[in-house]
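Suppose you are handed only these lines of text.
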Amino acid sequence: MQFSNLPQSPQSQSLMFKILVIEDEALVRANILEILDSSGDFDALGAENGLIGVRLAREHRPDLIVCDIMMPELDGYGVLDALRADPATAAIPFIFLTAKADQGDLRFGMNLGADDYLTKPFRRSELLLAISTRLEKQTALANRYSIKLKQAEERLNYLLHYDSLTNLPNLQLLRNRLGELIAQASRHQQSLSVLSLDLDRFNRLNQTFGYQVGDQLLKAVADRLGLCVALGDTVARLRADQFAIVLAPGQHKPDAAETCTIVLNAFCQPFVVSGCEVFVTASIGISVYPHDGGDADTLLQNADLALSQARQLGGNQYQFYTPQMNGVVSRMRMRSASLRQALQRCEFQVYYQPQVNLQSGEIVGAEALVRWLHPEWGFVSPAEFIPLAEQTDLILLIDQWMLQTACTQIAAWNRAGLPPVRIAVNLSGRQFQQPNFSETVLHILLGAGADSQYLELELTERIFIQTVQENVEILKSLKSHNIQISLDDFGTGYSSFKYLKSFPFDTIKIDMCFVRNIDRDSKNAAITRAIIQMAHSLNLKVIAEGVETEAELAVLRQYGCDAMQGYLFSRPVPAAEFERMLREGKCLPV
Ligand code: C2E
Ligand code: CA
Ligand code: CA
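From them, the structure of the protein bound to C2E can be written out as follows.
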């Protein structure tokens, strides 16, 4: 019998299907292996008992398993049970071999989830037919599954990167594109401009004519802006009535000032909305790379500052950014200088925010968050000083100090006999890219006497854009020591599903901007739901951040989210207070 038109092996990605034969009778086993080998389509592997069979299945992930029922120690039912309980082997097709055609036994096996059975003795053709039929079904299933996954991916991609009212790229996609354009401009020593634009007195218009008219006007504005720019330029809608335009570098193109003139002239014509003519004007702020900033966020921020200047000067005009517009710069300089001394002066503290399992309601972990208590300024938010620290090597010292403090705390809580929970520590990209990063982590764990299974590292997607293979190796090495890895702020960065599939993460953290108002905000609900579905189909756990209300919690539960963190259960608290929660067994009502 020929099986040359069999589909490609989905597990091994090779042309040969890997078949595991678990059979204690040596003669029968040898006979089956010989049949499979001689057919030329299979790479066959034998196991002489159930225990070895389970081990080989986990190690080799075969495409199909043929297994005898009656075996000493672990029988066929036991093997099937063990494999179905492990997500890594649960889906492998399974064919039972039985000496006696005992219908009761077989029914039991099929109920356990076997896919087919063969009664011994069987003919060569019967064996090959049973195997090929099963493999074809499995491949059809895998194809259907990957099509569905692809569709879900595309939908989520759209929701995360486009504005649904105007179909323009949103802030996130604009940031990504701007980042790429900056890299390109830097290589070719070119400049590029960022325009931030908003409509003058849009709110008054909204109040007078209503939101529906407001929405239609925004759509019309989006269309008209599209006509004002050249090929390769990007128009995006950032929020409400604020748009941005990135002018890609290129010869023979209008420059920033010329483009602004084109746009402002285009606004001289009325917009026709619901049969009425509406006149609006716009204000524009401009920042130019590399002069006004070296990265996407700085350029957008500075274009915004220039925009507020244009607005203050009466609107219907454009302004270039100048450093004088930046009153916050001096404050940042002051913060940077004090930040250097903060570590020596022991001004940092660690707060712990509990993470709760949504099924059991129990605390399963905590995220360690740094706090800076300055003698004069009081608490300074990490959202303010971490970005400053990231511009220098200071971030390495802060992250290392956090890791050390958290590990010491893990060891102390374990010694004190508290219920074991996992502590998650945030790491910056700089830290992750340090040579010998995984050795450093292990060294800190060892020094603190902490058990590695209680440490989790939170990394953001930004880290994974570059040097992909190297990063996979670092993560694998951490994971081989039982350290858990979570992907932080999912959805706010590149959100490429490529990373999800190729990096060994354990958990995805859904950023709080998607959790906010999911009970009322249908877009956020769709995004959150799609992320949870996607993560689960890739065997990843999902934790929702920033849950503030019962209504948000209820929707997360309904979507099957695994865990949550947020003010609803607890704010980040000092170590002693988190310890008290653990002792008292504080729970989320289920
Ligand atoms: P993140 O990793 O996304 O941390 C979660 C932030 O959300 C924390 O802000 C937390 O206090 C806040 N949060 C938690 N629940 C709620 C809620 O229900 N509602 C609201 N509105 N907020 C909630 P925090 O502590 O200000 O930290 C801000 C960011 O600073 C963190 O965001 C993280 O990116 C960074 N960060 C904090 N600690 C460290 C650290 O030790 N190392 C590094 N590299 N970054 C850190
Ligand atoms: Ca985090
Ligand atoms: Ca986060």
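What can we learn from it? Confidence is low (pLDDT under 50) at residues 1-5, 8-14. Residues 488-489, 509, 511, 545 surround calcium ion (ligand 3) (CB under 6 Å).
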